[in-house]
Design brief:
Radius of gyration: 20 Å
EC number: 1.5.1.5, 3.5.4.9
Strand order of the largest sheet: 1-11-8-7-5-6
Structural class: alpha/beta
Family: Belongs to the tetrahydrofolate dehydrogenase/cyclohydrolase family.
Keywords: Amino-acid biosynthesis, Histidine biosynthesis, Hydrolase, Methionine biosynthesis, Multifunctional enzyme, NADP, One-carbon metabolism, Oxidoreductase, Purine biosynthesis
Catalytic activity: (6R)-5,10-methenyltetrahydrofolate + H2O = (6R)-10-formyltetrahydrofolate + H(+); (6R)-5,10-methylene-5,6,7,8-tetrahydrofolate + NADP(+) = (6R)-5,10-methenyltetrahydrofolate + NADPH
Largest sheet: 6 strands, parallel
Order of helices and strands: HEHEHEHEHHHEHEHEEEEEH
Pfam families: THF_DHG_CYH, THF_DHG_CYH_C
């Protein structure tokens, strides 16, 4: 399907599924629980969890994300350390900062906002973050622990997806799950988390042949392809649960833009539950960042090996 065709087919009658999963409310509740746990940690250990956020350059979207993360950190009672670097920052300079943050006992979590300028190798930077402080869950050590079920920090968006699913699914064992998207940030880790719950998991992408037919057999669909209106109503079987990770900007008639997901929610009146865009996965990603920071602080304070948990709060 071409992009113009997809955009033209987005506006459809508003038919709601049985459950519209409210990620905003769930995230707010999670942040409240995290704040209570932070207060307990401060009272019992004297340690306040600290999150360092590094932004290189002036990307407007990245700036918005960083401000939101810092604001939520404050709401949870944590300390935030903001580092804004110029667009011309060298890879060596950024790696030196990462080294300083790794050694700083007041910093329990480190997040480097992506994308980075062209002169910086993002992989090298993410690999330089101490695994115990890698609250994004992108370090190869944490990826390896997730894949083997042996602990570590779980990437925030996949962790949030599982929490959203937990609100409507009690027993995962034997369910068929289809993940659309193969990224290291969402697709692969969410597939591993579903597999851990003993789902039968199929990982697909927009180049998968007969994609609609594959999706039609799923009890759970996680759409993370970054393609607006990719998943149509006739792709989803009655009673399925759909998690829409897509955040896509498409044109409006007035010349502006609006945000839509990968799924045409208005066509899913036959689904059991669907996450909206916006207001679904997005708020949970930031809340799970705070959950990971709290976990990292607890692990570092206790000196224990990072724990493996399915959900926070």
């Amino acid at each position: 399907m071409g992009s113009s065709e997809a955009e033209a087919r987005i506006d459809l009658p508003d038919v709601r599924p049985s459950i519209l999963i409210d990620g905003t409310a769930l995230a707010a509740g999670l942040v409240t629980r995290i704040a209570a746990d932070v207060a307990t940690m401060v009272r019992t250990t004297g340690v306040t969890p600290g999150l360092a956020v590094v932004l290189v350059g002036r990307d407007p979207a990245s700036d918005i994300y960083v401000r939101r993360k810092i604001a939520q950190t404050g709401k949870a009672g944590m300390r935030s350390f903001e580092h804004r670097l110029s667009e011309e920052t060298s890879e060596a300079e950024l790696l030196a900062l990462i080294g300083q943050l790794n050694a700083d006992d007041a910093v329990h979590g480190i997040l480097v906002q992506l994308p980075l300028p062209a002169q910086i190798d993002a992989g090298a930077v993410l690999d330089a973050i101490a695994p115990a402080k890698d609250v994004d869950g992108f370090h190869p050590v944490n990826v390896g622990r997730l894949s083997t079920g042996t602990g570590g920090l779980v990437p925030c968006t996949p962790l949030g997806c599982m929490m959203l699913l937990d609100t409507v699914i009690e027993e995962y064992r034997g369910l068929k799950a289809v993940v659309i998207g193969k990224s290291n940030i969402v697709g692969k880790p969410v597939a591993l988390l579903l597999l851990e719950r003993e789902c039968t998991v199929t990982v697909t992408h927009i180049a998968t042949r007969n994609l609609p037919d594959i999706v039609r057999g799923a009890d759970i669909v996680v759409a993370a392809a970054g393609s607006p209106a990719l998943v149509r109503g006739d792709w989803i079987k009655p009673g399925a649960v759909v998690i829409d990770v897509g955040i896509n900007r498409v044109p409006r008639e007035d010349g502006g833009t609006r945000i839509v997901g990968d799924v045409v929610t208005a066509e899913l009146g036959h689904a059991r539950a669907v996450t909206p865009v916006p207001g679904g996965v997005g708020p949970m990603t930031i809340a799970c960042l705070l959950a990971n920071t709290l976990q990292a602080a607890g692990d570092l304070v206790s000196g224990s090996r990072p724990s493996h948990r399915r959900q926070a709060g």
